[in-house]
Automatic annotation (TrEMBL):
PANTHER family: DIGUANYLATE CYCLASE DGCM-RELATED, REGULATORY COMPONENTS OF SENSORY TRANSDUCTION SYSTEM. The lineage of its organism: Bacteria, Pseudomonadati, Pseudomonadota, Gammaproteobacteria, Pseudomonadales. Residues 1-26 form the signal peptide. SUPFAM superfamilies: Nucleotide cyclase (SSF55073). NCBIfam families: GGDEF. Residues 402-436 form a coiled coil. The chain crosses the membrane at residues 195-213, 220-242, 254-275, 287-305, 311-333, 340-360, 372-392. Keywords: Coiled coil, Membrane, Nucleotidyltransferase, Signal, Transferase, Transmembrane, Transmembrane helix. Residues 471-602 form the GGDEF domain. It catalyses: 2 GTP = 3',3'-c-di-GMP + 2 diphosphate. This is diguanylate cyclase. Gene3D superfamilies: 2.60.40.2380, 3.30.70.270. The keyword Coiled coil applies. It holds the Pfam family GGDEF.
Amino acid sequence: MTAKTPALVRYLLACLLCLGGASALAQSPVDVGADERGTQTTGHSQVLHDPDGHLSLAQADAAQAAGNFSALTSKGSTGLQPGAHWSYVQLRNPGPDPAHLHLEYVDHQLIELDAYSRPLGTGDYAPVARLSMEQPFSHRPVAHNRFVVPLTVAAGETRELLVRYGSRESGYTFPALRIWSPEHLETRQLRETTLTGFLFGGFFLMSIFALVAGVVSGKLLFYVYALYALSKLTCWSTILGYTHQFVLRDQFHWSLMSISGAVTIVLGLLFARLFLQTRAHTPRLDYLLLAMIGNGGLLLIAALFQIKPLALVTITLALLLYPVVIGAGLLRWRQGQTEAAIFSLAWGVLVLGLLMQALRDLGLVPHTPFNYYWPPVASFTEMLTIMFAMGFQMRRVYLDKKAAEQQYREHLELSKAQLEEEVRLRTRELEQAKLVAELEARTDPLTGILNRRSFLTDAAVRVKLARRQRKTCCLFMFDLDHFKRINDSLGHSTGDQVLCAFTDTIRQRIRETDVFGRLGGEEFALLVEEPKESVIALAERLRMDIAATQVPVNNRVVTITASIGLAFTEGEASVEELLNQADEAMYQAKLEGRNRVVEAGVAG
């Protein structure tokens, strides 16, 4: 039995090959010709997932022959899956001439692509192309920023094609090849490169504009924007394959896509934080932006050290949190920053572009040239819109600078008359200040009436004037009764209220021409120019008014009385002599029982 086993195995393999041939014959081929314009794609009808990425060509061929390949259920993408995917397709040339084809991979995220071909149902598969991002660009059979597989289908021939799409660990795969003739692909590539060159040139010009604005204004914001625009240029040129094609032709690595994306995310969030001034105006959102910047830093570390699972987690988190920046912009707009509304609009365009890329990567929307270029175009639109917002800020800086220059010119053009006017106004201010200082020096700080020195001075002038006019003056000496008891029992603040209430009572009853002052403590003096009979009546009215004065203190009422001494001008008596006479009379009033009026020289 052992000897027969190899023969049995060969028989089973032959049957398997026959079944494979039958399966292949059952496969509907794609008709191709010499004038393909990229309208047809291959690969979606029969796809096999290789989770480990170790399936060999023979094993893939056997799996296809056994019917293990199945149609892709999504709209173009396999979604985020580990390992590799295989696709099987038949290409038939019904025409009389050979069809020279370029089969273009539809996306840019693939790390490696291996293509194998054979005539339908005959022989073994032969390698057609082995493409990898980690190989020098010169190894590619067709110079294109995406993977392109050259293939020739003879007239009347049908060829089978097995293609392996490798993403390493985990990635998004679009198991489809767009069919072109070499001439049409070259024309399309030229047009596409021109348009993306315009896009990249726009990023570069915006960076230069911001750099110049930063030099002119000295603001950090413009420098960060310049770096942000340059990072956009680097990021999209790397993701779309142009960095490998034109710059790093021999040293390119797939991780550079994640590195450039991480740098762009970090710079974009730093710019948003500076532009919206979230640290000063929205501190809670600022903490969230800082966390997002930290997440971008983790993405950069994961890319540098090629930790693909961490890179996928952090990039997903970054994209999910991107709409937070729109909310911050709208909040700053409500707070009064006009440019924040434009910023939110720009960031919203970017988020829509990234959302489209996410939906395309997940296979929820079909993979089309429009969807393919929407994210970079949205990114460009975002930068262009933000540039308008930056223009508003630049205009504000310009207007501020212009206003400062105009103010400086006006200052230099001040005439002599204007300078003299300023000096005159300053002199007037100094004179007013001097008057205020003199007034403060003349008055009692508590009651606001004349202090002792000012009272004696003014009273002496009034006495001399009355003597020349042969008029009678009377000097009142007031002393508040039991004032020390008020201070001791109720406190000095209450005593101050009592003194002020007494002062207000007297000032309401005398004329502006009368001289009223505080001599010290609870002693006050008043000089009036009246006949003797009128003065005595005035003194009694003042005594009664004082006794009727009530001072509310801590839910109680304090009443006050005063002892009053009067001294009239006789002969050449001076103010000091009148003061002494009135003082003696006031003490006599106290001896007689307080709250009374006593005239000097008149016995009680």
